[in-house]
TrEMBL record:
SUPFAM superfamilies: Gamma-glutamyl cyclotransferase-like. This is glutathione-specific gamma-glutamylcyclotransferase. The lineage of its organism: Bacteria, Pseudomonadati, Pseudomonadota, Gammaproteobacteria, Pseudomonadales. Its EC number is 4.3.2.7. Pfam families: ChaC. It is an enzyme of class 4 (lyase). InterPro entries: ChaC (IPR006840), GGCT-like (IPR013024), GGCT-like_sf (IPR036568). GO terms for biological process: glutathione catabolic process. GO terms for cellular component: cytoplasm.
Length: 194
């Protein structure tokens, strides 16, 4: 599938008659809220886990030196914590452009911290999109992130802001925190000439 998903997403979900819908954010949507929302609540979704497996050629990297950003991969029993936003359907006109580098909207069941549930949408970049990079050792991912920068800023900023936001949410994400820790040691090594 082409990396540009704008048209795919426009044809994907019929919003007619829908006044508001829940959107689940697990990556930059948690901390970069550049869209209007009616309500926000911490929430989680089941059977998916967060992974820095998606390439970013347009936001946090370039086609020559892509960065790495998060997507979700299926893992039975896993719980991914993030932030849910109740939004008007027209907000997706902006979000589909923002998430255009490989992300498709999927329906999912959100569980709020009080145990209540609602149906919503989540952007996922699946492995059949052109920008998908897949698994690499945590230290290699951290090195790639340390080197990458794009129109939205340094890739390291994406990682560090996400890690801080996850801590603020009380979310346990060993994958993100391990890469963050490698990033810090990469910086220390380069400062000490190592
Ligand atoms: C999300 O935040 O939910 C999608 C991935 C991203 O934009 O970082």
């Amino acid at each position: 599938m082409s990396a540009n998903t704008i048209e795919h997403n426009r044809n994907r979900y019929n919003f007619s008659g829908v006044e508001s819908i829940w959107l689940f954010g697990y990556g930059s949507l948690i901390y970069k809220v550049d869209f209007p929302f009616l309500e926000q609540r911490p929430a989680s979704i089941r059977d998916w886990e967060r992974r820095f497996w998606q390439g970013s050629h347009d936001h946090r990297g370039t086609p020559e030196a892509p960065g790495r950003v998060v997507t979700l991969v299926e893992k039975p029993g896993a719980v991914c914590k993030g932030m849910a936003f109740r939004v008007s359907p027209n907000v997706f006109e902006h979000l589909d452009v923002r998430e255009k580098n490989g992300y498709l909207r999927f329906s999912t069941t959100l569980t709020f911290d009080d145990g209540r549930q609602a149906e919503g949408l989540v952007y996922i970049a699946t492995e059949d999109n052109e920008a998908f990079l897949g698994h690499a050792p945590d230290a290699d991912i951290a090195r790639q992130i340390a080197m990458a920068s794009g129109p939205s800023g340094p890739n390291a900023e994406y990682l560090l802001r996400l890690a801080d936001s996850l801590r603020a949410l009380g979310a346990d994400c060993p994958h993100t925190f391990a890469i963050e820790s490698h990033l810090h040691s990469t910086g220390e090594n380069s400062r000490s000439g190592g």
